[in-house]
Request: fold
Amino acid sequence: MGAGSRASRILTGGSRRPGAPAVALASTVVFFGVLGLVVVSSPGWPRVRDAFLDAEVFAAALPDVLRAFAVNVRLFLIAELLVLVLGLLLAIMRNLPGPVFFPLRLFAVVYSDVFRGLPGIAVIYVLGFGVPGLRLPGVPRDPFFWALVALTLLYTAYVAEVYRAGIESVHPSQEAAARSLGLTRIQALRFVIVPQAIRRVIPPLLNDFIGLQKDSALVSVVGVVEAFRQTQIRAAATFEYTVFLALALVFLLVTIPLARLTDWLVARDRRRQLAGGVR
Amino acid sequence: MSADATAVPAQQSPPTAPEAVRIEGLHKSFGRLEVLRGIDLTLAQHEVVCLIGASGSGKSTLLRCINLLEPIDRGRIVVEGEEISARGVDINRIRRHIGIVFQAFNLFPHMSVMGNVTLGPIQVLKRPRATAEADAIALLERFGLADKRNEYPDRLSGGQQQRVAILRALAMEPDLLLLDEITSALDPELIAEVLNLVRELAAGGMTMLIATHEMGFAREIADRVCFLDGGLVLEQGPPGEIFSAPREPRTQQFLQRIVEAGRL
Ligand SMILES: Nc1ncnc2c1ncn2[C@@H]1O[C@H](COP(=O)(O)OP(=O)(O)O)[C@@H](O)[C@H]1O
Ligand SMILES: [Mg+2]
Reply:
C-alpha cells in the first residue's frame, strides 16, 4: 500500500478527482515541451549540443569514468564505515555522565563545531597537501589516504550530531526504566538508549551518506585520480564535455537509489509510529 | 493544619513485623515548587500501603525518590535497615532491591518480552543467560504470559504490556515494589488483569507501596491507606477507616470528589 499511495500522491498532489492523473500527465507534457523548445531554440544550442550531447563520445567515455569511479566507491565505503563508528563514539562521549568526563565532552563539542564549520574542500587541501608536505618519517604520503582521513573527519562531525539527536529523542522514561533495574548510566546507554537511537537515525544518516558520496569528487583537488578527475582529464584532451554527462549519470546511479531507500525508510517509520501508538 | 498533620496516629503499622522502609522528614522541591514537605512513612515487611491523593500531590515524586530516580533535598530513607539516602551509597546496588512500575509501562520497545524481563538479571545480577531465561519463563508461565515471550511490546495489549513491566521488576527479586498508577493508562476492560496480578503478589507477601486512583482496589488490597496532601501524609489508617470515616476535612473533600466521579 505504502509505495503505491506515495507514488500516486506525487502524481496527483493529493487530489482524488477521477481526472487527476490525466491532468498531471498533460501538464507534464506541456511543461517539459515548452522547456525543451526554449532550450533547443536558444542561439547557443547547436554548440552546446555538440559539446555535451554526443552519443559516441558518451559511450566511449563511460567505461573509463566507471573504472575511475571505483576509486570513489572505495573511498566513500571505507569513509562510511569509519564515520559510522567514530560518529557514534563522539556522540556517546558527549553523553558521558559526571565531572570526570568533562574533557571528553568538551572535546566532542569542539570537534563537532569545528569540523561542521570548516569548508570541506579546505580540510581536504590542508590534509592532502600539508601533511605529506611535512615529510615526517612513517607518515603516509598517499593522497588517497589523506583524502580518506579528511572526508572521515568531516563527516564524523555531521554523523555525530545525527546520533546525538537520536539519543536525545529517546524519551527520558526509557532511561528511568533502565536505571530503576540497577543498570549504570553507561549500561543504560548501551542496552536501551543507543539501540533505539540508531534505529531512528538510519534515514538522516543515509542522507549524510548521499552527501559524502557526492563529496568524494572533491578529493580530486589533491590529485586523487577518481571519476571527476578522470572526466576532467578526458574533457581537457578532447574538448568533449559529454564526458561530464557520463560522470553525472554514474553518480546518480549510486545516489538516487540511496535517496529512494532513505525516503522509503522514513515512510515506513511513519507508518509504524501511526500503527504502534504510544511507546 | 500542620497540627493535624502531626497528629497522625502512630500505632497504625503492625508493630510485630520488622520494618521494610522508613521515610523521615522527606523534602523535595522542583525549583521553587515544594512538592514534598516532610513526608514520614513506614512500611512493615509484607505490608501493602496505598498512596492516594489528588493529581499533582506528589505521589509519583515520592515513589521516584524512594527508587533514587530523584535526588532528595532533605530527610532520610531507610530500606531494610540501610540508609539509602546517605551520601556515597551505590545507587545501582540499592535499586536492585527496589522495583518500580510506571504508569506508561516504559517497556523497552526494541526488545522482546524475554529481553525485557532478562535484561536486569543478566546485566545487573550477572546471572548466566540460560539461568535468567529459565527464571523468566517460569515467571511468565506463572502469570500466563509464557506464549508472549518472543513478542515485542508493540504487539501486546496495554494490559499485557503492564503485566510484563511488573514481571520485569519482579525478575530482579526485589524486597520492595513501587507501583505508580499502573492502571491509569489502561482501557477499563484491561485493568482487571493487571490488578489480579497485584493481588497475587500481595497474597504472596510482597511489600508494596502503591500510588493509585482505583479506590475500590485500594480498599480491598491495602493494609493501610495514606492520603497525600500539601506535601505531607495528611492522614493514614486502615482502608475501612479512611474510606468510611476520614477525619481530615481535606480527605473528606478528596473522597467526595472521587465519589462524584463515580470511582468509589
Ligand atoms: N521533573 C519535574 N520537574 C518539575 N516539576 C515536576 C517534576 N516532576 C513532577 N513535578 C511537579 O511536581 C508536582 C507533583 O507531581 P507528581 O509527583 O507527578 O504528582 P502525582 O503523581 O501525585 O500526580 C506536580 O506539580 C508536578 O508538576
Ligand atoms: Mg503520578
About this structure: Chain A touches chain B through 22 residues (CB under 8 Å).
